[in-house]
Design a protein that fits this description.
Elements (H helix, E strand, L loop, with lengths): L1 H8 L8 E4 L3 H32 L1 H10 L8 H24 L8 H32 L1 H84 L2 H31 L3 H12 L7 H12 L1 H4 L4 H13 L7 H16 L1 H26 L2 H55 L3 E4 L1
Parallel strand pairs: 1-2
Length: 428
């Protein structure tokens, strides 16, 4: 028992403090484990000898049983049944000899597995021979005692080996568990390093993106203060004014034709119903007057009005007298008035000026450049927001990993002292 106490029971005297780097611990555990187990090897070898001695006694027990004489007081019927149970006992005892073989090596795992298998074999034998033992005890009492003694001896030797092995295996499992925790810590450090790298990458990209946005805004500011941009704004104002003037001219043209709307409507209906078919040129003029009066000024309207006037006068359009009179007055006004000609010239002049201003405006790249810069800034600001959100999430993840790692460190520092009963300080 002193040997067992030395291995498992008694605490050692105080040991000097020891500092180990985290990467040195697996090797330290391996060496300590090997050292402790080496102390157990002689004990295992000794127990193997004792177990083999117990197994070696079984053949003698079998021979004794096979040659034994029935006690004189035995009942004939019991004697007959006892012979059959003798064979069962012998077969089961022989199975022990076949199955219970001590390992060639003295490894902890082999010894532990051997004990478990042997215990299971003995249990099976006892279950298979329970009734047979009762009969044998009645007719071969001495041999029954020898069997019980042999099996008990074997089981005791196995238990004597199993108890310290189980304790040692539990300790080895603690070593393995601690090694696994060290591995988890190293994985955690790797994850922290990866997260720190990601944070650095996000911060670098954010700084670069902010610089790009600032540069783009500066270029936009320079662009908006440039002479070309000022000229573009002037041209925009000029285009807007010309469009407004053209709109006023078109409105005035439409106002001149409006009193004739009834006439033109009747002419269009009669043309479609082929009551009074217009020439292709006059049909085109009529369509433009109806839908876009300003564009009708591009045509020769004299011949058109020359056709309109007699149709009003002869009543073929079906207009009332008062309407006919007003329509004829308006035809005369359109035919002889200088207003229409003036509006035509103004429209032509404004259109040419508008075309010139638009051509010059389109030739300037400043607006396209501004549009591209505005789009770039908008796109970059959206990307910046996404990157800042990703950075925030990664920082929270890093904080969580760091806190978890700190807890793991604290646990490892406490556990290693209890595991080896030494004042061991881990250097991380």
């Amino acid at each position: 028992m002193k040997f067992i106490d030395k291995l498992f029971g008694k605490k050692k005297a105080e040991n000097p403090s020891l500092k180990l780097k985290i990467d040195e611990i697996p090797q330290f555990i391996s060496e300590e484990s090997e050292k402790e187990f080496n102390e157990l090897k002689p004990f295992i070898l000794n127990k193997y000898k004792e177990i083999n001695s117990s197994i070696g006694a079984i053949p003698e027990v079998i021979d004794s049983l096979l040659t034994a004489e029935v006690v004189e007081s035995a009942n004939k019927r019991v004697e007959k049944v006892g012979d059959a149970n003798k064979d069962n006992l012998v077969n089961n005892l022989r199975s022990i000899i076949e199955k219970v073989v001590t390992p060639e090596d003295t490894s902890l795992q082999s010894a532990f597995e051997f004990c478990i298998i042997t215990k299971s074999t003995l249990k099976t034998v006892l279950e298979n021979t329970h009734k047979s033992q009762l009969y044998i005890k009645a007719i071969y009492p001495e041999e029954s005692q020898k069997i019980i003694s042999a099996l008990s001896s074997l089981e005791d030797r196995v238990d004597e080996l199993l108890v310290p092995l189980r304790n040692k295996k539990a300790r080895m499992d603690s070593f393995d568990k601690f090694s696994e925790e060290i591995s988890n810590y190293n994985k955690m450090k790797k994850h922290i390093h990866e997260s720190q790298t990601k944070v650095g990458q996000f911060e670098s990209r954010i700084a670069s993106m902010k610089k790009d946005i600032l540069d783009a805004k500066n270029r936009l500011n320079e662009l908006e203060n440039s002479r070309e941009f000022e000229r573009a704004k002037q041209l925009e104002d000029e285009v807007s004014n010309l469009k407004e003037q053209l709109s006023d001219v078109d409105h005035n043209i439409q106002r001149l034709f409006s009193p004739m709307s009834k006439v033109f409507s009747r002419m269009e209906k009669q043309d479609k119903s082929e009551i009074c078919v217009l020439s292709p040129e006059h049909r085109q003029i009529l369509e433009k007057i109806t839908h876009d009066p300003a564009s009708a000024l591009e045509h020769d309207l004299d011949s058109f009005f020359a056709e309109v006037k007699p149709r009003i006068e002869n009543g073929s359009l079906g207009l009332k007298d008062q309407m006919c009179e007003k329509a004829l007055q308006q035809v005369e006004k359109l035919h002889n008035s200088k207003d229409l000609a003036s509006l035509r010239e103004k429209r032509k002049e404004y259109s040419l000026q508008l075309e010139s201003a638009m051509n010059e405006l389109n030739s300037l790249s400043v607006y396209r450049d501004k549009e591209q810069l505005v789009k770039q800034i908008s796109r970059d600001e959206h990307m910046l927001k996404t990157l800042e959100e990703d950075l925030d999430m990664e920082k929270k993840h890093l904080d969580s990993l760091t806190a978890e790692c700190q807890l793991l460190r604290s646990g490892l520092s406490k556990e290693i002292k209890g595991l080896f009963e030494k004042d061991i300080e881990i250097e991380y």
